[in-house]
Design brief:
Blueprint: E1 5-12, H1 13-20, E2 31-38, E3 45-48, H2 49-55, E4 59-66, E5 72-85, E6 88-97, E7 104-105, H3 107-113, E8 115-118, E9 123-126
Parallel strand pairs: 2-7, 3-6
Antiparallel strand pairs: 1-2, 1-5, 4-5, 5-6, 8-9
Length: 139
Amino acid sequence: MGLVYADITLINGEDLILAKRNIIGEEEIKEMTVSMLADSGAYMMAINENIQEQLQLPFIQKRKAQMANGSIEEYDVVGPLEVRFKNRRCMVDAMVLRGDNEPLLGAIPMEDMDVLIHPLRQELIVHPDHPYFAQMKMK
């Protein structure tokens, strides 16, 4: 199976809250659509410094992650970040990769939104068994 990319909309979660409280206008909500690698081998959402700078997501903590080559690196974690794909959404924190590294849609947001990587079509899809709403297992 090849690499699967999807257009994902990322929105500053704090801006959404401020807009709901009429502290800022809807036009002030920072958002962008990014082509992201759907990576079921990565747990978390990972954005890069350029995305972080544009969305101005607040720092939450530092966290270590093991990379594909086995090395352990420390990254900033920022959020909250609303993630949207088709008729799905979720709120997550994101690790910030250095520079303009490729952003990753990890397993946690994919499961939360109930989306799948379709291996034959090589694309991200909403779960075909529940196309109108996300469904999760509670056990």
